[in-house]
Amino acid sequence: MSGTSMVVLIVLISVGFGVLYDMYKKHLEFKEKTLNYNQDSDKQNQLLKQQVSALEERVQVLEKIVTDEGYNVQKEINKL
């Protein structure tokens, strides 16, 4: 193997490893962004679940009020 071939081979190997290293860094950045996105989504989902629970409780209270006989009597009195 001549000296020129050896230099070309070393340059190609160096460039190849550089490209592979950059690809690996991009892969790690993507995984980190995905992990952060999932954590944010989990927090948002938890908040939304709490809000839905609170709204369900309010709807149950309103249903009790509306189905209560006293409410119907009050409604009839207000009509008069």
For the record, give the distance between the C-alpha atoms at the N and C termini, rounded to a whole number. Answer: 109 Å
Radius of gyration from CA coordinates: 34 Å
Task: Give the number of domains.
Answer: 1
Which regions have little confidence, pLDDT < 50, spanning 5+ residues? none
Q: Which percent bin holds the helix content?
A: over 70%
Helix/strand order:
HH
Count of beta strands: 0
What's the total helix number?
2
The main β sheet shows up as: none
Give the overall shape, derived from the CA principal axes. rod-shaped
Structural class: mainly alpha
* Percentage beta strand: under 5%
Mean pLDDT: 87
Please give the structural blueprint.
Layout: H1 3-67, H2 69-79
What does this structure look like?
There is one protein chain. The model has no long low-confidence stretch (mean pLDDT 87). Helices cover 95% and strands 0% of the residues. The longest helix is centred in the middle third of the chain and has 65 residues, at 3-67. The protein has one domain (3-79). The protein is mainly α and 80 residues long. It has two helices and no strands. This is Nitrite reductase. Keywords: Coiled coil, Membrane, Transmembrane, Transmembrane helix. The chain crosses the membrane at residues 6-24. Residues 38-65 form a coiled coil. It comes from Thalassomonas actiniarum.
